[in-house]
Automatic annotation (TrEMBL):
UniProt domain Beta-ketoacyl-[acyl-carrier-protein] synthase III C-terminal: residue ranges: 244-336
Organism: Streptomyces sodiiphilus
Gene3D superfamilies: 3.40.47.10
Domain of life assignment: Bacteria
Domain annotation Beta-ketoacyl-[acyl-carrier-protein] synthase III N-terminal: ranges: 108-173
Keywords, in A-Z order: Acyltransferase, Cytoplasm, Transferase
Name of the protein in its database record: Ketoacyl-ACP synthase III family protein
PANTHER family: 3-OXOACYL-[ACYL-CARRIER-PROTEIN] SYNTHASE 3, BETA-KETOACYL-[ACYL-CARRIER-PROTEIN] SYNTHASE III
Amino acid sequence: MMFDDLYIAGLAAYLPERVSTQRAVAEGWYDAAEAEHLEWVSVAVAGDLPAPDMAVRAANEALAQSGHPAADVAVLMHASCNHQGPDMWSPQHYILRHTVGGTIPAVEIRQGCNGFLAAMELAGNYLAAAPQRPAALVTSADNWGDPLVDRWRATPGGLFGDAATAVVLSRRSGFARLVNVCATSLPELEELNRGGEPLFPPGCTTGVRVDLRERAATYKGSQDLVQAGRLMGETQRRLITRTLEEAGLEPGDISRIAHQFVGDEQVLRRLLEPFGEDAVSRGVWDFGRSMGHTGANDQTSGLFHLVSTGQVRPGDRVMLLGAGAGIAFSCAVVEILEPPPAGTPGAPV
């Protein structure tokens, strides 16, 4: 989906303190052999701060930067992966109550780690559908520290980090332009994240811990894990190509890449293969391996990192790469138009 007049007017992130993998090994939380094999440096840990409160902090910062009053915001979309609070409760309305308020629609997006990019595409379309809608607020937050998730062992090759991010999309102006978002799905691989677990009763109601490693090990799909991994890689590479072609761009036109956070540089090289030999240097490798995989926040916290540390300047284009359970993939192109707004870390004084 191409957007003619959709801008990022505000961008913020809540990034908790880090806990080093060295300490995790010493405490017995993280496997020493895996720590040596992979290259995670640390993980962001928010303690007992609820995910919706993290989202509120990021959202209010993004709103303050954007220049949009609360009355301009026409919709709120909140992306999440893990539990946000009590079951049968609405975190998106809690976030709405503590940010812009009012009676606008508030929607929770449950598309796993692809959620933020999916929410941006939906919010962009919502604004485009009616010219009287000036702005949208998109948030995401996860705290993986609950008793049913072991952030150090729950997912193959990964560590879960806590974070919240927020973006204000504007029809009027912004420091960056959202050029386009493209998406695709591989529903035949949904079982990868389900494995042998029954659909009912849900594991979270019976105290079953989240173990994505075990689910992958019990996967009995039509393709083995190697074939499934190959298909996912091919699908994401095709989506990258389609996103570039739709925007009239070549891989060399992309200055930086805000990708999924991984702890293995070889995995990252395969992920960024369409961008050539220097792709890793254009990514956010060091930042990502200091955070852990932050659910739907990887891409937007990566973009925030690039903006707030002055690593992008006007004229640069950043590609955001998302992937989530489903399997869902999204790609977006963001063009930097001017220095970040006042209030963003790294903004000119």
